[in-house]
Amino acid sequence: QVQLVESGGGLVQAGGSLTLSCEASGIIFSIRRMAWYRQAPGKQRELVAVVTRGGSANGDNITDYADSVKGRFTISRDNAKNMVYLRMNSLKAEDTAVYFCNADVALRDARNWFRYWGQGTQVTVSS
Predict the structure, then answer these.
(1) Which of 24, 67, 71, 104 is most buried, judged by most C-beta within 10 A?
(2) 8 with 66: CB under 8 angstroms?
(3) Phi, psi (5° rounding) for residue 100?
(4) What single DSSP character describes residue 81?
């Protein structure tokens, strides 16, 4: 019903930058929360960044980041295109992981929400 497709991963040297993109397609009424997670070999999947649509008191999006990426990564979204982005600067070797996006999607109305995941994109940072 809903597919999430990530792109933009690759190999980069430490200190470099990458921008990941994730597009949601299918039967979509609304997308509330969009997030990026990552999973390094032998480690659990962890939340990297999240953006919630209209989550603030004045209707602006709310963003939040893992402490390890604050000041280096920026999450943003394009609601018209159902896309979420992750701009990653000052990359470190420890950022090496498979990066997954997910989204909380209402399919036909706002009564029922479902969480979908993408297949992941590999980010490798060489030191």
Answers:
(1) 24
(2) no
(3) -120, 140
(4) G
pLDDT digit string, tens, across residues 57-66: 667 889 999 9
Residues 6+ apart with CB under 8 A from 57: none
Q: What's the whole-number mean pLDDT along residues 13-19?
A: 98
pLDDT digits (tens, 9 = 90+) for 90-101: 999 999 999 999
- The one-letter amino acid code at 53 reads R
Scan for tokens 């962890």, then name that residue. 46
Asked whether the beta carbons of 89 and 17 are under 8 A apart, the reply is yes
| Stated length of the chain | 127
Backbone phi, psi, residue 92, to 5°: -120, 160
Distance separating alpha carbons of residues 127 and 125, to the nearest angstrom: 6
Answer yes or no: are the C-beta atoms of 63 and 51 closer than 8 Å.
yes
